[in-house]
Amino acid sequence: MAAALLYCTDPMNPRQVDPHFAAEAGSARALGCVIGRIDHDALLGGRAQEAVATVPTDLGPAWYRGWMVPSDRYAALAAALAARGCQLLTTPRRYRSAHELPGWYDVFAAVTPPSVWMASAAGAVPSPAELTTLVAPLGGGPGIVKDYVKSRKHEWLEACFVPELTDAVNLHRLVTRFVGLQEDFLAGGIVVRSFEDFGGQGRDSAGSSEARVWWLDGEPVLVGPHPDTPEQCPDPELDQVHDAVRKLGCRFVTTDVALRADGVWRVIEVGDGQVSDLPRTIDPVALVTALIAAVAGPPAGRR
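^ thats the sequence. predicted structure below, dont judge the formating
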């Protein structure tokens, strides 16, 4: 059975792959992959069966490579595909573990900024007292506000960076603004992270240059730039990150790493590899080749 990759449909031309993923899909097709298309808009709208309507039946095991999907919608996608004879190689449980900070934080705690979180619905703002209790374990100092998946790093002073976490009024103001900007897209709840100096501002945790490392079955298969800085690619030290990735146990993940001002490599984010963006400056062949090889399953020692 040929390897299969599922990409998002072009909203303007449903018979084609979304242009953002067209080059990667073309490389996959040239390497013998079967390409399926997912209607991302239908999936987000709660119409999972419609979203997979053009995926060939009995496709077998497949990777998804497309736009971000909330964890509950990913579970619906997996179920709809299974009904058509297609099994996502990342299970819904593993997807949530890599996609949402509470799922990956514990195994990465030694190599990522200290963090706290609380579940919260879209539009709901915790009270100043609730936020004060939440951030108490961080012990004060500057911090970063985000949800379980994303920050508003491009609104750095408005909805991301907190100069002093013990300033309850300002913390509440910033969280209120963050929740308002996220609207219905707030994922999971509120996360507050200690600020660490990565040599700049305007990026999550103020990172000015990051590497994105792609891992398959616990091993790095590609080290490249972060999509926000596609022309810059540091050469990270990965021993501790490697250990954490293996402990996490997810088959396909990414880690965004940056060099802290004191010379220590730190993990800024972990993500599910299926919904992590590959910068256009990177030839997709190496990643696609690794994904094809991994369809057969992890090595015996990693099963």
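The mean pLDDT is 93.
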